Amino acid sequence: MTEPNDTQATPGLPAVITQDEASSRVTRAILDFISQVPDSKLHSHSDPEAEARRLANRAAQRAALTAGTLALPPGPLGWLTILPELISIWKIQAQLVSDIAAAYGKHAELGREQMLWCLFRHTSAQAFRDLVVRLGDRLIFRRVSYGVIERIAKQIGVKVTQRALGEGLSRWMPIIGAIGVGGYAYYDTRQVAATTIAMLKSDIGMADGDDAAADVTQEVQATRLH
């Protein structure tokens, strides 16, 4: 009798879903998610940073409650809530990014690249080396192909999946697991807010592909001449 092949399965994860499959699902969800920037009903604020922090506190509390609630189902049933939990948290965080940008009067500057940066830069900073060039207080975003965006999303997807699977083991202890998952969602949402505020306080630029690196080189040379 042939033994089932479970070499790729993660301990505690239902055998029908391997870590690679879970990562692929998360990656597809990320790509679908960043395709649209949420609208905001807010307007430019006289003190945008204070308003941003107020919005961040409220969003972090909502994220913690949402994640903690979805983490309550015990055992194998808890695994089925992981992707819905991630998407629910991303929706809260994406709306937060949109509202903070509106408070700074920069909502029009949000695009696919900026949303990806704000939502996931703290998750995998290395994934963004082909997307963003930093020069002092400037952030230059490269307009890249879908293939590059997909590669970045895959790197983020692996990181997110590894963390989610680690948290998933705690779902066998539902109350303790819910507290831990909720606490991380709170922290994660505050990190999104911090990245967004830092980006919006910077001078945001756009460039096509390698033109971004060329622009940075020219500016560095010009600065040295002065």
Shape: globular
Helix percentage: 55-70%
Query: In total, how many beta strands?
Result: 3
Rg computed from alpha carbons, rounded to a whole number of angstroms: 20 Å
Average per-residue pLDDT, rounded, comes to 80
- Uncertain spans, ≥5 residues at pLDDT below 50? 1-16, 212-226
Specify the biggest β-sheet.
3 strands, mixed
Share of residues in strands: 5-15%
Instruction: Provide the structure class.
Output: mainly alpha
Please state how the strands of the largest beta sheet are arranged side by side: 1-2-3
> Could you spell the SSE succession in H and E letters?
HHHHHEEHHEH
The helix tally amounts to: 8
Distance linking N and C termini: 77 Å
Organism: Dyella humi
Protein name: EcsC family protein
Provide a brief overview of the structure.
By secondary structure, this protein is mainly alpha-helical. It contains eight helices and three strands. Strand 1 (132-135) and strand 2 (138-143) form a beta hairpin.
Please explain how this structure is put together.
The chain is mainly alpha-helical and 226 residues long. It is 62% helix and 7% strand. The protein has 8 helices and 3 strands; from the N terminus they run αααααββααβα. It has helices at residues 19-33, 48-70, 75-79, 82-103, 112-120, 146-168, 174-201, 211-225; strands at 132-135, 138-143, 203-208. The protein is globular and about 45 Å long. A 3-stranded mixed β-sheet has the order 1-2-3, with helices on both faces.
Structural features:
226 residues; mainly alpha; 3-stranded mixed sheet; 3 strands; 62% helix; globular; disordered N terminus; EcsC family protein
